[in-house]
Each structure stands twice: as C-alpha cells, then as structure tokens.
Write the structure tokens for this entry.
Amino acid sequence: MLSEIYVGWKNFTFPNPQVESEAKRRIAICVDCDRLRKNKTCALCGCYMPAKVRSPKSRCKLKKW
C-alpha cells in the first residue's frame, strides 16, 4: 500500500501522460460521489483523491473504479 501511495504522489507531482487519462476518468467519478469532501479527500478511506486516482494499482473502496 505504501508503494501505491508513493506512485500516486509521484504521478501527481510529475504528471505521467500514460496515467493522466485514467486519472481524469477516475476523478470524474469521485466528483459525483457524496463521500468526496471539499478538501478533496475521501470520507471513507481518507486519501487525497487527486493523488490516489493517479496510482494505477489503487482502487476505490466503494468499487466505483
């Protein structure tokens, strides 16, 4: 799990074109979710979603992506 967090933050800080299209699809799902807080963290897992959506191995706990 720690490696997934690292990859997500790395791709957030240094955008990876291969990851960005999937990240955009994922964050669009999150924006419509009632669990997304104003500070862009998930109320269920506590993750900062702009970074988590950029971790290819990470998954939504609600199985939305």
Remarks:
- Residues 17-31 form the longest helix (15 residues).
- The radius of gyration is 11 Å.
- The mean pLDDT is 96.
- DSSP finds three helices and no strands in the chain.
